[in-house]
Amino acid sequence: MSHSGDEDKKLSLKAHLGLIDAPLVVGALCFARLATAGEATEPIRIEYRAEAGCPSADEFSGQVFRRTASARLARTAELARTFVVSIERRGNGLVGSLVVRQADGTTESREVAGPECGEVAKVLALATALAIDPEGSRAPNPEPSTPPPEPPPKSEPEPSEATPAPSETREDASAKAWIVSLGAAIEGAITPVPAYGGSVGVGWRAPHGRGALSAAGVDVTYLRAPTHAVDTAAASFQFLYARPALCAVALKWHLESGVAPCLSAELGAVTGAGSNITHASTRSRLWASVDPTLELHQALGAGFFVEAALGAVLPITRYEYVFRDPTTHVYTVPVVAVIGAVRLGVRLF
Predict the structure, then answer these.
(1) Which of 2, 131, 185, 250 is the 20 to 30 A CA-CA neighbour of 151?
(2) Cα-Cα-Cα-Cα dihedral of 290, 295, 300, 301, to 10°?
(3) pLDDT given at position 27
(4) Which pLDDT tens digit goes with each residue over 153-205?
(5) How far is CA 84 from CA 269, 347, 348, in A?
(6) CB 198 within 8 A of CB 239
């Protein structure tokens, strides 16, 4: 009777999880070929993060180790494959991902979907076990068990400070939402020649970008335009402004990479200077604009990321730059200009 019940569960799982069974298991078998052949028991790490109400990290690890005895938890600083497991809600269902990160840094991944978190977790546990041991059992061992104990420490010195368990490390990384960034920026058409400079910013970024608001923050930007010649005179411009921004839901194609539409504003001052004229002078005026942009975000690991932004500048304060005595036209700010930026940042906490 227990065998029949297991078969019913498998049939039900296939019906609910469409994409899961064949592709994920085949992928898991491919992952397994990369295992270290020299060890009968492979050291591994499991990094697990899931929605509230899903199996805990210990429960998930238990499901994996009940299906295979060919693995053990890696010691601190020991080279090992890492199995990164994530389950998150998407629309009315749940999406789970398994990423196998080899000791050399290369990765492979699979995604599954289903209506219930417990079923998604079971399939991911099966895929993890088969990636470790293709000959492992597809049905969990009925007797409750714990992961195999770690072997005695080797003779070489180990780090004195213990590191967090892999599952805790993954959850802590996911919770790092506050960021700082530094980068270069350029704006074209707000001055006779493109203005360039840099920005520094702070902000908040959702760990997964699935909500209606994926990011928010403010940059302080400084731009300077090269000197522009008008007959024998010269004009130069510089901008200093704060740029608050809000980004909508991110369109993601792989884990922590994605692109999101954003809306920001430039609030500050523009300073123009005229030289080689009868009455040389410098004037500062209010500068304000609205900037719709598209921003690309790419995680670099260890909390670092890089962003690129491209969009339009819609000036609210549209000035006509002129020299006086005699009045000489220099430049008129157009209705639409462009902005581009590249930023390198790090997650704080």
Answers:
(1) 131
(2) 80
(3) 52
(4) 555 545 444 444 444 444 444 445 788 999 999 998 899 999 999 999 999 88
(5) 47, 19, 22
(6) no
Task: Look at residues 281, 196, 270 and name the one whose alpha carbon lies nearest to residue 234.
Answer: 281
pLDDT digits 0-9 by tens, 258-288: 788 999 999 999 999 988 877 778 889 999 9
Instruction: Please give the angle made by the CA atoms of 80, 83 and 87, to the nearest 5 degrees.
Output: 160
By DSSP bridging, strand 71-73 and strand 42-50 are parallel
Yes or no: say if 208 and 236 are a contact pair by the CB < 8 Å rule.
Answer: no
Tokens of 227: 């000197």
Point out the residues of the chain with pLDDT beneath 50. 1-22, 25-26, 29, 32-39, 144-145, 157, 159-175, 255
Look at residue 34 in the predicted model and tell me its pLDDT: 45
How is 254-280 classified by DSSP, letter by letter?
A: ETTEEEEEEEEEEEEEEEEEEESSTT-
Query: Residue 119: which residues within 8 A CB-CB, separation 6 or more?
Result: 12, 13, 16, 17
